[in-house]
DNA repair protein RecO (Clostridium magnum DSM 2767), 170 residues
Amino acid sequence: MSDLDTLTYSAYLCELVDICMQDEESNRELFKHLVTAFYLIKNNAVDIETLARAFEIKILQATGYAFSLDYCCICRKKLTSSNYISLQYSGGVCKDCMRVNGTYISYAAYNALKYLTKVPLENIYRVTLSKEVKRELYKLLSILIEQNYFRKPKSLEIFNYLTEFHEDKV
Ligand SMILES: [Zn+2]
């Protein structure tokens, strides 16, 4: 991992914490996640993109926007998997319910999302995601972050630039 990537991702995680918190509010859980993430980055122990997605999920959970993926977020029927996420209710929708205000994702991405909501951040090094799944989760989580918090992380724009830059190189 290049120093620039490390720096950009670290800045992004800090910005995300800043964005999701109200002024003067303290949230120990968020702080703990941030320390864990920095530890993993420093030890070069994880795929940083996977860490960033897992971190976003933890942030959403810690601030009251947890995903509901085990049950349909509309009819509460048990779900083993789904290919549709409601952006309104931040959860999976079963095949019998109406699919509005949401987005289709692959079953692989849904299952990865479900797994990431449950695994502790310090165990994220065990997770391997395909490029396509990472891309899907990135899109979904950016929408939810933008929708739930008032500001959009600026470092996301730097990311897009970096990603294009990397893709040009290969
Ligand atoms: Zn349903």
User: Anything to note?
Assistant: The pocket of zinc ion is lined by residues 72, 74-75, 77, 93-94, 96-97 (CB under 6 Å). The radius of gyration is 16 Å.
